[in-house]
Amino acid sequence: MPASGRPPGSWQSPPGPAVARASPPSLAPPARALGENLPIGVIVGVAVAGFLMALASLFIVACLSDRGKKQRPPMRKRGTMVVPAGAPDSYPPSNGPAASPSDTNSYEFTGYKSCFTYDELVGITGGFSAQNVIGEGGFGKVYMGSLGDGRRVAVKQLKVGGGQGEKEFRAEVDIISRIHHRHLVTLVGYCVTENHRLLVYEFVSNDTLEHHLHGEGLPVMDWPKRMKIAIGSARGLTYLHEDCHPRIIHRDIKSANILLDKAFEAKVADFGVAKLTNDSMTHVSTRVMGTFGYMAPEYASSGKLTDRSDVFSFGVVLLELITGRKPVDSSQPLGEESLVEWARPLLVDALETDDFREIADPSLECRYSKIEMRRMVEAAAACIRHSVTKRPRMVQVWRSLDVDGGSTDLTNGVKLGHSTAYDSGQYSADIELFRRMGFEDDLDTAEYGLSDEGEPGPGSGRQRQQRTAAGR
Description:
Blueprint: H1 18-22, H2 31-37, H3 40-70, E1 81-82, E2 112-115, H4 118-124, E3 133-137, E4 140-146, E5 152-158, H5 166-177, E6 187-192, E7 197-202, H6 209-214, H7 223-243, E8 258-260, E9 266-268, H8 273-277, H9 280-290, H10 297-302, H11 307-323, H12 339-353, H13 370-383, H14 394-401, H15 424-437, H16 461-469
Parallel strand pairs: 2-6
Antiparallel strand pairs: 1-2, 3-4, 4-5, 5-7, 6-7, 8-9
């Protein structure tokens, strides 16, 4: 075959020795020539096909993984709705997940609302067993319960009378369920039927402020704890008054409605419950009995409640923290049974002389911060003013107590003790009138937390009334 017959594109070596030229030509083309003969389109096609196969494999793996997740059984939570919450101290319903309370041992319920059936609550409370009763108040009994996952709850069984219908009740509960704050007891869920109205709350394990201040055989609550509780509960009430829409007036502020966790952080309970009953006669007779000793003067005379009525009641709680005395104590000398009337002149004297020994709890043995004591005394004196308009707002009270809140003027331009002329005897007569109206109601007040008292003992309505009035 002549040299000119080489396939086109073959490489021709340069002239060399004769021996090299004499060798017979190879029948196979060089390796490089084979690669160069493949069309570029084939190479590109193979690469694209490989890439597509890799993508398909990844898609199949992702689908199988997602299918496995969907087949997992969901959490058994009937009617659960996540309610967003906010900052660690204030939880409006639209700013992300809620922070947990400071007590790491308490159960986290914040952010959940659940509708329970009556049969479920029967099971949770052991058939509403008397052994599970942990409190009883003007609105009904409170039972200890346990959810399926072991979390404890407090089930409040409201008395059903001439109250709201189912639609109105659900609307009110929906408002309460959206309120989340580290110093307010969280509503876990509710139950509403034709004959039953029940509220399910988180269980707060360290009982009430009333228990720790006035319970027998308990260690003396030191001053730092008292100040911490005052500030915390003031924050919770400020949130109800200032940051809730619609604004919520508590209507029953008392030491028995301030629950404590293991770290002695305060949690205000029972807010919004008064509106759920909506029974005017029951409200007047039982609620006033339940709050005897905390009642604002204008409520005793007219039955009207405002946010400043809450402020007055909170002032009585502050007096309990300062003095260690009950709101009404029949064991005290005649004329000194009422904490408010006994403390009023002492508060003024203490602030004028800067000497708090006469007003401070003797069991503290003067072991308190004088600066903090003055703040609390000033706040208490301003809160229990006779004149509604001269009392501070709750936010002012909180700021005056909080170490980081700075100085707040609570006088409203009026010197303490000179807000208005007031007939103390008429106030006592008005209270006595309400006491007679609630004559037959037994209103032991420990609610939601553990109680050291059992079922109410036998006795006449008058005896039970006197026990309640004494703050037991």
